[in-house]
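Hello,

Our lab assistant flagged a job as stuck in the queue for most of the afternoon. It eventually completed. Since we weren't sure the result was trustworthy after the delay, we are filing this so someone can double-check. Below is the sequence as submitted and the structure that was eventually returned. Let us know if re-running is recommended.
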Amino acid sequence: MDYDNKLVLAPMVRVGTLPLRLLAADYGADITYGEEIIDHKFVKCERRVNEHIGSTDFIEKGTDNVVFRTCNEERNRVVFQIGTSDAVRALTAAQLVCKDVAAVDINMGCPRSFSISGGMGAALLTKPELIHDILTTLKRNLDTPVTCKIRLLKSSQDTVELARRIEKTGVSALAVHGRRVADRPRDPAKWSEIADVVAALSIPVIANGDVFEYDDFRCVKDATGASSVMVARGALWNASIFSPKGKVSWEDVKRDYIRKSILWDNDIKSTKHTLKEMIMHYSSLELPEGKAVIKSESLADLAQLYGEEKYYKFVHGKKVTGQWE
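-- returned structure --
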């Protein structure tokens, strides 16, 4: 994995599934993170090649529940992010998937109560010894690149100190979200504190926070000196943010997303959640479109809603006859 001058799709819970990752890559994303997967859940999965749609699936044993879906097309850019509080469990999870992804990342920045109460995500920021244990265990046992994503600590000095300790574990890169745990998304990202981390390290740093237009990638890079720049909400609202040609209409992006969800048989709940997030940014769930998405019970319903019935039938006809190109 090369982390120099890359445009990166951030990990986003319930959103960063295969269709959005492939859509972002189509528009220009170089590296695409999957949504955080909790190690407890992933170690109960088995790997299956899904010849029906051409994907590699990790299925919860004894169920048809797809916990993580990927494909060969994204093999060299997809990053599998693990939520963990235990080095051995993290390694077990990583060993299941490491041959199918470009890198493995440990989530050390999620501020959600679920993560923190389980000792995961941002809870790790106050446990440097555990961080060291997890990262060195992965580095010793995997050939796949290992990275992690953190938030800012209470002071810039504390963040730099932690980042230096992380660098010593041998990770390939460090992503830094320019907000503290208590900060809300509306609070401005502190690019200057990311710059402090960049100045202190020799490994690539990926800067994350307040990227909403293509030009913001350059602004963040110039302000922080980071090797690469990561975007979350800006890409969720319009994945064409990665295109140097400028954004295309969110209506077009929305339809592209639906087509990819149909093609890769994405979970309906995940698809609806992503669509609702897009709609809430540009419009309202109280309007007819939003209400119709909420009522939809299947990808077929969404195909009908957005005028993609022909594409839906085309895809499902190909699946039945096995005529994949």
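-- support follow-up --
The delay was a queue issue, not a problem with the job. The result is valid. Confidence is low (pLDDT under 50) at residues 320-325. The chain is about 45% helix and 20% strand.
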